[in-house]
Amino acid sequence: MSVFLPLDPFSTEPIGPRVYRAIREAIVCLRLTPGQIISEAEVARQFGASRQPVHDAFVRLELSGLLHVLPQRGTRVARISPKDVRDAQVIRRAVEAATVRRAAERRQAESLAALDRNLARQEAVARDPQPHAFLKLDEEFHRLLAACAELEMAWAIIEDAKSHMDRVRFLSLPQTTPVEVLIRQHRAIVSGIAAGDAAAAEAALAEHFGELDKSLPALEAKFPELFDRDDAGVRSRLAAR
């Protein structure tokens, strides 16, 4: 059985981005486990694709810290880097704080309606024991915040930085962070934006990000095999090559 979600055979999108997202999703959701060796040829076979889009995806995933290419030995799924998680948190806090402040200044009705619809869907899946559906909606929620502020590039910056953070988020939902708490925090962010209260929206966002700060040490202790013990951070490792 493949660890990858099937590609949509009717999609008109080029296969490269779809292969990248499918591999990334399998890593984030830990169906490809930290330390596991994978090969371009086998992944290409599972997708029924040529080697080139898989190779391109591997290069991109190595740059984001999710894969390590081992010369003459293959490619290994990276263990979670606590340093990279914390670095990404710093970037994300700064960028999203500016995003919600600007969203509160603009208060665009159409964007707020999209956020409300997203929150309704979050509540509909809150009791699902599997976190996949909620994580997808959580990702969409934060992307919609950037759209609400007309700062789509801000989301692109965040998305590139948060690869290891996403795996911690996946682990935290069934382990340390109730989904209901996250939804309440999401609602507080939207309420602040809708009221034009940038300070309230930013305070709610800070509380929201604090959940990961609380869960990371507990997850490192509970799942030591998933975390990088020699943790210099991916950028330092790549720079040392």
TrEMBL record:
<dbReference type="InterPro" id="IPR008920">
    <property type="entry name" value="TF_FadR/GntR_C"/>
</dbReference>
<keyword id="KW-0804">Transcription</keyword>
<dbReference type="Pfam" id="PF00392">
    <property type="entry name" value="GntR"/>
</dbReference>
<dbReference type="Pfam" id="PF07729">
    <property type="entry name" value="FCD"/>
</dbReference>
<dbReference type="InterPro" id="IPR011711">
    <property type="entry name" value="GntR_C"/>
</dbReference>
<dbReference type="GO" id="GO:0003700">
    <property type="term" value="F:DNA-binding transcription factor activity"/>
</dbReference>
<keyword id="KW-0805">Transcription regulation</keyword>
<dbReference type="InterPro" id="IPR036388">
    <property type="entry name" value="WH-like_DNA-bd_sf"/>
</dbReference>
<dbReference type="InterPro" id="IPR000524">
    <property type="entry name" value="Tscrpt_reg_HTH_GntR"/>
</dbReference>
<protein>
    <submittedName>
        <fullName>Putative transcriptional regulator, GntR Family</fullName>
    </submittedName>
</protein>
<dbReference type="InterPro" id="IPR036390">
    <property type="entry name" value="WH_DNA-bd_sf"/>
</dbReference>
<dbReference type="GO" id="GO:0003677">
    <property type="term" value="F:DNA binding"/>
</dbReference>
<keyword id="KW-0238">DNA-binding</keyword>
<feature type="domain" description="HTH gntR-type">
    <location>
        <begin position="13"/>
        <end position="80"/>
    </location>
</feature>
